[in-house]
Write a structure and sequence with these properties.
This protein is of the alpha/beta class. The chain has two domains: about 1-225, Spore Coat Polysaccharide Biosynthesis Protein SpsA, Chain A; about 230-305. The chain has helices at about 1-5, 25-30, 50-60, 80-90, 110-120, 160-170, 180-185, 200-210, 230-240, 240-255, 260-275, 280-300; strands at about 10-15, 40-45, 70, 95-100, 105, 125-135, 140-145, 180, 215-225. β2, α3 and β3 form a beta-alpha-beta unit. α2 (about 25-30) runs parallel beside α3.
């Protein structure tokens, strides 16, 4: 029993979607971990490139490094949240390390988290630091380190309730460096598949609602790749109706009743409406305007000056 506690099986879950350009770096970083008791799961979300064939070949050549390996594929794209859930569902480890197929783990990533647990056995979710790079992991593309331990979110003796209040007002957890107990993910019913493109905010909000405190270590454990889009690509991302709708659902479902977040909710609502407005008939535009006015009126009644 003591050996299991000191040397638990850890599931590294690589989340891929059209990741062929970078996924080998991610897989190699899993193989090179100094911690040994690891299973590797690759969960692919119907990539249109050759991500799956690259992963399959690499797994065939490196499966002996891991306690267990699994490659999960699906016929249709389902979104990041569902992809994460598939990986977690198939994980056998006590602890889960999710990593995107274009990021990479530092060699001591798993060991640093396990070492923290040896002295903090009640922890269920741990945030660590991230190295940021622009596009490639070359030294001249290094952008900095996160320094999460300096954030108010991780101040000394902070409670889960205080963290919950902070996350409602915009404080973010860096999902790429989080180390999570599998049982916690099950307890909060995993990632919200109703919001397929935004897996992190809803998940951490649920975690804090359930009074799980997010712990913090100063170790740097992950390399995070920031892709710099062109103006055209950026416009496409920002004005994506699907993404705007995801933001709207997130605001309404998880930040409802928080007066400070009303502006955030209505910003996302207006973004979504701007995108779809030109597609509607005059009759539908009038009906939509009435519906939006009703929503605004209802929300403002919650604010003290309208009470």
């Amino acid at each position: 029993m003591l050996e299991k506690e000191n040397n638990p099986l850890v599931s590294i879950i690589v989340i891929t979607y059209n990741s062929s350009k970078y996924v080998l770096e991610t897989l190699e970083s899993a193989r090179e971990q100094t911690y040994k008791n690891i299973e590797l799961i690759v969960s692919d979300d119907a990539s249109a490139d050759n991500t799956v064939s690259i992963c399959r070949q690499w797994i065939d050549e490196n499966r002996d490094r891991f306690a267990r390996v699994e490659l999960i594929t699906v016929p249709e794209n389902t979104g990041t949240s569902a992809n994460c859930n598939r990986g977690v569902k198939n994980a056998k480890g006590d602890w889960v390390k999710l990593i995107a197929g274009d990021d990479a783990l530092l060699q001591n990533c798993i060991a640093d988290n396990i070492n923290y647990l040896s002295e903090n056995s009640t922890a269920s979710i741990i945030q660590s630091n991230v190295q940021f790079f622009e596009d490639t992991f070359e030294d001249n593309n290094f952008m900095g380190i996160s320094q999460v331990e300096l954030m108010p979110f991780f101040k000394t003796n902070i409670t889960s309730k205080e963290q919950y209040r902070l996350i409602l007002t915009g404080n973010k957890v860096i999902v790429t460096s989080v180390f999570i107990k599998k049982q916690l993910i099950c307890d909060v019913d995993g990632f919200d598949e109703e919001i397929p493109l935004i897996e992190d905010g809803p998940f951490f909000t649920k975690v804090l609602r359930r009074n799980y405190k997010i712990e913090c270590i100063s170790a740097v454990t992950v390399k995070y790749r920031r892709h710099i889009p062109s103006k055209e690509e950026n416009r496409g991302i920002v004005l994506s109706a699907t993404y705007a709708k995801n933001l709207l659902i997130y605001s309404k479902k998880y930040k409802k009743g928080n007066v400070k977040q009303l502006h955030y909710y209505f910003y996302n609502l207006s973004l979504y409406l701007i995108i779809i407005y030109h597609k509607l008939s005059i009759t539908r535009r009038i009906k939509l305007a009435d519906q939006v006015f009703a929503k605004i009126t209802k929300a403002l009644r919650k604010v003290s000056i309208y009470s």
